Structure prediction request, 148 residues.
Amino acid sequence: MIKRIVLVTLVVFTLFNCSSDDDASSFDLSLLYGKWFRVGLCQQYNSLQLNQDGTYESFFSGSADCNDSAVDVYKYTGTYVVNGDFYTANRLTSELIIDGTDISTNDFEQIDAVTEIIELTETTFKLRTYVERENGVIETIETSEYER
Prediction:
């Protein structure tokens, strides 16, 4: 009877104290928080602010020239989560800040993609966005690099 109680206690203790390593990131996520600027693009209109409470604010034009009047500039806000090394953003608002003369960046089709953190240091934040096709082939859509 004692063996059975000890065994049941051990099983219950094990079930409630095991954690999955799948949720652990290989990066120091405390480095994630703060303002990041997209490398190679106009910093004023291509930035990402990640807050500790899981919210973000982003500006996007896609242009290297801050004086380029052809591109639209958008402000996005929302929430994000990091699970392991994977970053998932949930856009809650999209606001046109500057209405350029060219095609809108919001006119493109949204795809079901995965975004993976591939580098995170005090000064560099790199993301790889990809899709996995039906045939198992992984196709990289974009590699984004940010700096402080």
About this structure: The beta strands are 34-38, 47-50, 55-60, 73-83, 86-98, 114-120, 124-132, 138-147.
